[in-house]
Amino acid sequence: MTSNIRSIPRPLVKTNQWSIVLSVVLAWVTGQESILLIPLVAGLLGLLFGFNPIMQIAKLFFRKEPSAYIPEDWEQQQFNQKIAISCLAIGFISFILGWETLGYVFTALVAIAAFVAILGFCVGCFIYYQWKQFKYRRANQ
After folding, report:
1. Contact at 8 Å (CB) between 13 and 99?
2. 1 in a domain, yes or no?
3. Which phi and psi (to 5°) does residue 7 adopt?
4. 127 Cβ contact partners less than 8 Å away, ≥ 6 residues apart
5. Helix (H) or strand (E) holding 8
6. Distance CA 76, CA 1 (A)
7. pLDDT per residue over 82-132, tens digit each?
8. Number of domains the chain is built from
9. Residues 6 or more apart in contact with residue 83 via CB below 8 angstroms
10. Is 94 inside a domain boundary?
């Protein structure tokens, strides 16, 4: 019996993370907060419709079958994407409302988390694991 675990090839996840980091940095450097809409809208489309345009474009550059790449857990990535979208949305709205400090805080949070994930430690994964542990312990009390 084989289990069919839903996954996302790691290069797609990394591309999505880079798009977040680069969009935040570019928004800061240019002062054009609308750049944040690129990863924000792509992430929303991915969550709501299963179609992340950034990942779809990146997939065109695959040299191997998607299954040949290291898989990332789909459910875990959905959780991470929800956090990223939330931070990007709060940051974007804050900039629009003129709340610069809050905008910088939330966009910095998501950019740092994405960059640290690129380097190998996934903050969202850690939070997800702790949440699952909390729910498990609570259910078994």
Report:
1. no
2. no
3. -145, 170
4. 79, 83
5. strand 7-9
6. 24
7. 999 999 999 999 999 999 999 999 999 999 999 999 999 999 999 999 999
8. 1
9. 110, 113, 124, 127
10. yes
